[in-house]
Amino acid sequence: MRLTTKGRYAVTAMLDLAYHSPSRPVTLTDIATRQTISLSYLEQLFARLRKAGMVKGVRGPGGGYKLSRDSSQINIADIIEAVDEQVDSTKCGGEGNCQNNQPCLTHDLWMGLSDQIRSYLKGISLGSLLEQDMVSEVARRQDMDMEKVIDLPVTLQEKITA
Amino acid sequence: MRLTTKGRYAVTAMLDLAYHSPSRPVTLTDIATRQTISLSYLEQLFARLRKAGMVKGVRGPGGGYKLSRDSSQINIADIIEAVDEQVDSTKCGGEGNCQNNQPCLTHDLWMGLSDQIRSYLKGISLGSLLEQDMVSEVARRQDMDMEKVIDLPVTLQEKITA
DNA sequence: TAAATAATTGACTAATTTACTGGGTTTTAC
DNA sequence: GTAAAACCCAGTAAATTAGTCAATTATTTA
User: Fold this and answer.
1) Which residues pair with B57 in a beta bridge?
2) How many angstroms away from the CA of B45 is the closest CA of chain A?
3) Given B36, B87, B102, which is nearest A98 (Cβ)?
4) Residues A25, A63: contact at Cβ < 8 Å?
5) Is A109 touching B (CB cutoff 8 A)?
6) C1' (C21) to CA (B91) span, angstroms
7) Domain residues of chain B, as ranges?
8) How many residue contacts between A and B have a Cβ separation below 8 Å?
9) N or C: which terminal CB in chain A sees fewer CB atoms within 10 Å?
């Protein structure tokens, strides 16, 4: 279990999706705009999340991504593990044999620590995060900000098509 | 709070130090040999650990590094924070203003999560890790392995000085 | 005092991972 | 049949990790 910015991006995007998803599929373009993450990078992350069976892609106009389970059934640890390649190895190819064919201190200690962190993050679901006032408040404000930002291009586009 | 291999190296090295330290200063060369970490990389890590006041360097022959506090008073979170540059920023230079001059979901969510992980790791000290049978057992075995490797040079040196 | 030891400092490099860009192709609603 | 969106792939820039090399400084011991 590693905690990096990559995992944070994934968790943030999934939380955005969980907040907007129940109604209709959410496009990655929307998430990219709201969370200021590169669209193509999001595509990479969601390819992994999809393979992990956490989201479903809906193609075509009006499409986007939906959670494949209820937000209360998706936990943070799973999200992070889906996008992080498990760079276990570390030296001990898998079974602890990095030091004279025996497990090293590194292996035992860190595996134990990260197991505990993993189980801690497994106890936190997207749903439980959404219930926190602070989170939903920020999400609501981002929706309003987005309307402001998007408004101009949309009206321009209408003028163009008109 | 990030969890990377860099932090693991630091924690492992500190645990090795804690195990051997009470008696005498421990050289980075010894730690590098036992934990198979590059000596120069260890030097970089210990420069940070020293600045953070967690270890004291003892120069000259018979020197090395010692813990500056009892191992029960040094926790894992402090070690990781000492070696990881705080790549908070993330975009929100410090005070959440990354999104239209207001805190973003990323910031609030992840800061909250990593705060909880931090406080969790703060509750684990080097001392408490050493009390675990598995850890001390591996450490003891590493000492024996090392003697085998080091024995030849030492006896040669005695012959030379004799 | 000289020699050896070991920390300390700093600049530099290679490898890996992260983040992003840009081009495409499918699928599907309208 | 056209536009919206997922999906796919190759490449690349930036950042981080990991390591090397070469010095300097402090200290002990002989």
Assistant:
1) B65
2) 16
3) B36
4) yes
5) yes
6) 20
7) 5-86+126-161
8) 115
9) C
pLDDT digits (tens, 9 = 90+) for B86-145: 655 455 544 444 554 445 666 667 777 788 888 888 998 998 888 875 555 655 665 555
Q: Which residues of B touch A11 (CB under 8 A)?
A: 109-110, 113
Residue B159 backbone dihedrals phi, psi, to 5 degrees: -65, -35
Query: If we measure between CA atoms, which residue out of B72, B52, B65, B63 comes closest to residue B124?
Result: B72
Alpha-carbon distance B109 to A146, whole Å?
19
Spatial CB neighbours of B4, under 8 Å, sequence gap ≥ 6: A2, A3, A4, B84
Q: Are A35 and B105 within 8 A, CB to CB?
A: yes
C4 closest protein residue (CA to C1'): B61
Question: What value does the mean pLDDT take over residues A17-29?
Answer: 88
Cβ of residue A2 closer than 8 Å to a chain B Cβ: yes
Question: Does the global pTM surpass 0.90?
Answer: no
Whether B77 contacts chain A with CB within 8 A: no
Residue B17 has pLDDT above 80, yes or no: yes
- Asked if B90 contacts B114 with a C-beta cutoff of 8 angstroms, the reply is no
Count Cβ atoms within 10 A of the Cβ of residue A136 and give its class: 0-12 exposed, 13-18 middle, 19 or more buried: middle
What is the model's pLDDT at position B153? 30
| Residues A26, A59: Cα–Cα separation, whole Å | 11
CATH of B5-86+126-161, one of 3.40.640.10, 1.10.10.10, 1.10.10.410, 3.40.50.150: 1.10.10.10
Task: Express each pLDDT in A127-152 by its tens digit.
Answer: 988 887 555 666 666 656 554 443 33
In Å, what is the separation between the CA of A43 and the C1' of C22? 13
Q: Tell whether B89 lies on the interface with A, counting CB pairs under 8 A.
A: no
Selecting from A36, A91, A135 the residue whose C-beta is nearest the C-beta of B99 gives A36
